[in-house]
Amino acid sequence: MTVKQYLLDRIAKGTIHMALIDPDKQSAEIAGDIAKRMKDAGTDAVLIGGSTGVTKENLSSTAKAIKERSGLPAIHFPGGPDALSTDVDGILYMCMMNSMDLKKVMGYQVMAAPYLKKLGIETISMGYVIVEPGMKVGEVGNAKVVKRDEIDLAVAYGLAAEMYGMSLFYLEAGSGADRPVPPEMIRAVKKAISIPLIVGGGIRTPEAAAAAREAGADVIVTGTLLERCDDGEYLKSVVKAAKGL
Ligand code: 1GP
Description:
This protein has an eight-stranded parallel β-barrel, surrounded by eight helices. Helix 7 runs parallel beside helix 8 and helix 8 runs parallel beside helix 10. By secondary structure, it is an alpha/beta fold. SN-glycerol-1-phosphate binds next to strand 8 and helix 9.
């Protein structure tokens, strides 16, 4: 089964959770431990990515460790075209729709396409939009961030992603954000589009995860929490709230 089908099948049953692991932040061995802990907490898949410091080596070793230890799909969440690995199960082939840098919108994707084809890596197309505060990914991506009250603009991006035929749409407040994407924005985008909606950035509590799910997120991503917390019960409470269990 493709990774895309795996995700769609799970999303059809309700909101899912994905754990984001930055391969530059710990050894592959520790990344494997985190993935195992998250698998036990109920996570559905692992994203591997970071805005800086991702290399073919740390990407490959981290993907292998995640798969070995947790059995979960390891999906590359790329920050650029530099590092690719056949050890991942698939890659989010994304367009940073509100970047002012044409390379982030389309250039890197064109550069990477022949390599992805040759390597046989599954690509899952995704529209990616940075919402205030945007954090490092907003800066590095030179994004014109969508303000928290620009709900119609967020909806327009979501519709454009769907009209382009993208498989997924991601609203990103930025890793470590002090405020997640507002529930009213999630609600409006969800109402307007029929492709799965991913929400991430600043979700660190069961309350925030539940608010995103209740507003209509199909996929909830948490990253920073996993680096800061090794309390399996707390992690489980966040994943359960994300999935509405
Ligand atoms: C980043 O949305 C994700 O792409 C995760 O954000 O690190 O704040 O959980 P956090």
